[in-house]
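Allow me, if you will, to draw on your knowledge of protein folds for a short while. I have a record of one protein: its chain in single-letter code and its fold written as discrete structure tokens. Kindly check, if you would, that the fold set down in the tokens agrees with what the sequence suggests. Thank you for your consideration; the sequence and its tokens are set out here:
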Amino acid sequence: MPLSIGARNPNERSAVKKQLFVPLAVASLSVVSSVNAITLDDIPFWTGTGTNRAALVLEWSTPESAAYSSVPAPIADKTMVWGYRFNGAPNATAMLNAILAADPRFYAVEDNTYGTFVEGFGYNLSGDGVIGITDGTTTNYITHGALTAATVDVDAARPINGGDLYWAGLYGPNWETWNEAGDAGGFLASPNRGTNQYWTADDISAPYSGVHGQWEISQNGLDGLLLTNGSWIGFSVAAGEYESATNAPYNLHKHAPPSPAGTTAAYVANANDFGAQVVSSSGVYTTSPYNDPAAVLGRPTLTFYDYYGTRTTNRVKIVEPPYWTDANGNKVITEISNGGQITVKLGRKVYDDPNNPYGVDFIIYGNSFFSASGGGAIKDSTDLDIATLSSGFYGHPTLVSVSQDGTNWFTFTNNGALYPDNAYRWDATNHAWTDEQLNPTKPLNPSIYGMNFGGTTAASALDEFTGAAGGTGFDLKQSGLPWIQYVRVQPVAGTYTVIDSIAAVNPTVVGDALAITPDNLANGITNLVFQQPANSSQSLIALNFDSISDVTRVGTLGLGDLSAYAPISTNSFSNVAGAYQITLKSVAGDSAVNALADVSLSPGAGYHGNGADLHVFQWNGAGWDQPAFTYNATTRMVQVSQVTNFTAFVIGQLPPVNLKVQLQAGSVTLSFKPIAGWQHVVERSTDLVNWTPVATNTPADTQTVTVSDGNAPAGKAFYRVQLSQPNN
């Protein structure tokens, strides 16, 4: 648990509040660098073949103005990246269409009338449902990644899956295209757009060309953008609709995409994940704006009005906690005095789920913060790659209790200060904030509570969050309750506490990342589980670690295309039942990670066999190994034990063997087309319970095999072929 902060004198409350809410910087100390920009080597999704590499970066964001458009704002701000391998000099259109064809969740609306122009981009976050867009009158379905003959109004359409990332524009804000500075390739890492919020036009009176750090606004259409090794193509949503005045704000507010985060899934808010009703309260602080119990309802605060400091609206961050009000005057936190309490009913039941990250089931958010030095007074423009943290953080000791019925309670014994929280993703490459929200329903790795960040930068500390928004997590296993829906928060005796929000934990899905540390293993936390995005009750990847050498980020991805790898023999299987990529990387940098774990993988919800028709392939960097595996009929997952090479895994399913039966005098003749190298056992039964072997064959090729059953019964009989691979 986090470090406990000692009780304070209630008579010093005002002075403490000022110190607590407005951390100021002092003299600069040592700097510890944060994670570098994502490189071509870090990109999780690849398609194409060849020795050259290029990348596509997209940022979904809400435009400043949406005149001439009724397209709903994207459900989340998110930057994503894909990789493309090639030889020769293909254009950006070829890369885009190859990626669209390879990633089943990614789709685009294209107009090819005068060359390729992208009107809309979408991404199916859940991985489920039919993909399409509708304007309320007309619906266009998208089956192969690109819609090239849209009949909907693209300035009014929305995705038919409400959970998709999506934006489109033609007369309204459209997608702007960027390429790396110089348009000559050679960028191993994502171009750096710098700390400026907007681009710099070459000529402000004619703002049609210019740069944003290492990005430049594209002067060619996609068809004219030829790729070389190290090319980067970026897309971002325009700030607003087209304006004829050259000095119009939305012409001057062009912005290249930030450095992408890699494999951190976008967070989409759900009100049921948070407090929905204040059941009771007492001892609430009497002075505004900290006197409203309802301020604890809903999601954690994203931004607040900095009343004491810069008098601007600032983001919540680990060095500047939520306080005062939001920009509209709404209260954002509640203070509970000594002896008081607040009882909240959550929007849904919270279950004790061992598949939740680290076993954590709910999170409490307060207004704790780290004191930072270097870079002047703390504000949104503070460079977190320079701001250096003190060894501890400031917060309030807090008692947390849970209940199923609001009457019978269990109180947790861990009562330290609530851990700091952070609302948005920091872009360490550009030393600036993005608008991408961190996930308040994803818990921190519990090992972070014991880490000493003294002397390290705030950005380095945020690397440890791995896409989570902070706060202190609680595991219902301690309570013995299978589920709860009520949470009570109290200050430790003799002090007071401040609460921002209470959040239920959601499972981590494939496409996201978690951290694992040596301390986790020492404390019995060895499992990481990643679920199906469209069905959080279905586990797709589970890792059970025996050893880990460092604080490690475990990234996952569902592979929809295997063209970046060597072909897998078609003699071995007829279809891919499941394909995944698992990546291990040190959270603190690029140092190698040594790990040993059992890896369990799902063949998919549609698989109902006993595992005998499955085969596992593991990428070794040059080809496919075929590791031994077991099948667990209870979890319906294959398991590869003692894995040290974390890479791409493919589960292949054997094609069905069709038996042809001919009745002849006194015997039955059976024929089938075999799978080369596999053992085929033809069996007979009269009751579908007991089976008798008739013949065994291990053909070297796929030529038709014919066998006879000279002992066929006079009555009815059933025949089947059982398959197994020798020496596996």
User: Anything to note?
Assistant: Residues 92-102 form the longest helix (11 residues).
